[in-house]
Amino acid sequence: MKKIVVKTPIVEMDGDEMTRVMWHMVKDQLLLPYLDMKLEYYDLQLKQRDETDDKITLEAAEAIKKYGVGVKCATITPNKDRVKEYNLKKEWSSPNGTIRAALDGTVFRAPILVKNVLPAVRSWKKPIHIGRHAYGDVYKNCEYRVPEAGKAELLFTNIAGRELWRGTIQDFKGPGVIQGIHNTDKSIESFAKACFNYAYDQKVHLWFGAKDTISKTYDAQFKKIFEEEYTKNWENKFKEAGLDYFFTLIDDAVARIMKTEGGLLWACKNYDGDVMSDMLGSAYGSLAMMTSVLVSPQGYYEFEASHGTVQKHYYKYLKGEKTSSNSMALIFAWSGCLKKRGEIDKTSEVVDFATKLEEAALETVENGVMTGDLMVVANPNPNNTKVGTEEFIAEVAKRLKKKLD
Ligand code: NAP
Ligand code: MG
Description:
Blueprint (H helix, E strand, L loop, with lengths): L3 E2 L4 E5 L2 H15 L3 E2 L2 E5 L2 H6 L3 H13 L1 E4 L7 H6 L9 H9 L2 E6 L16 E5 L9 E5 L3 E8 L5 E10 L3 E5 L4 H18 L2 E6 L7 H23 L4 E5 H8 L6 E5 L1 H14 L6 E6 L5 E5 L5 H8 L9 H18 L2 H19 L2 E2 L1 H4 L9 E2 L2 H16 L1
Parallel strand pairs: 1-3, 2-4, 2-5, 5-16, 7-14, 12-13, 12-14, 17-18
Antiparallel strand pairs: 6-7, 6-15, 8-11, 9-10, 15-16
Helix pairs in contact: 1-10, 1-14, 3-5, 6-7, 11-12, 12-14
């Protein structure tokens, strides 16, 4: 069979532990037999990051800027235990954080839906995508434990040293706590642009929720920037595509999410996104059924699975025990990346291949062949069979081959 040519190189970022094991199985059995692609390979496994003083991560981010599309395996973010385990020079920071900062990107997550795993919320029929603003607010705060009675004030001094504004936070009669948070127009604008881009790209409606009735300056600024971005750059495009932009109060958004059938992107402020992405992830069934993509305002894309390196399974694997790790999100990271590459290159055969790969993976689960994490949440059926890590990928490969023949 003649291989399908992927015109532009893809940035491949290898990772750690069980996801690294699955990564190579997926590549060897589902991709390389069919695709003629050039991979710009960066090995981001922890030992490599340590040996290069983490330069390899920055190089990978630069490569994404050069080629536009990348795909990443899960990587270890080291803590004290990992420093000992891998004998590291230091506690390197999270590669995802480094890449996100380099690309100024926003992370979007979406569930992979199969017919035989029903979401916890009955009305959800289509994916609810979530986009979390990953800058500022309570994550970059300044806090103080007020020890005694006194006055807390908010003060802004401009760069020339002139005091522009001062307001009373509270006249304390006794001990308490105070907190200062901030955001910047630039970051909110990038977030808004990324959300409109993503929603338009995925052909889903965009919802944004904030609390501008209570926070008449802070949250109101978010609302204003989203509205300006919409009227300036998207209103016509959205109308033509039959898409809506909908702003509502965050509590109303939450209530409506429980009643919607899905098919939308829910843009969330930083804290809301932190909390709500975990709720969505668990309500949709399994961590291994969540994909993730980092989108930069310049239109660079980095695809990955939402889950981590599945450390516990890896230790079993090292001991030679049988594992049942789910590679769905990794497969969808590759298919998402190939679809985007094919769209940009205008190579429909690459997009077709990626679609068939997704179909093969979905059909495998829908035919009852699944890993342990899904066995416990899937609709009970005597045909359901629990398979191991390798067997699952082999089953997908079998179906993919049939589709391509
Ligand atoms: P994790 O790797 O997501 O795994 C947590 C648990 O979720 C697993 O023990 C497993 O549960 C289940 N699970 C996750 N993915 C699965 C899959 N594909 N198939 C089957 N079950 C799956 O999170 P973690 O154990 O907290 O983190 C491990 C390492 O990953 C850490 O070093 C962390 O820094 C890193 N991490 C990386 C990323 C990233 O690169 N994007 C994201 C998160 C975490 P059971 O054990 O119950 O089967
Ligand atoms: Mg969270």
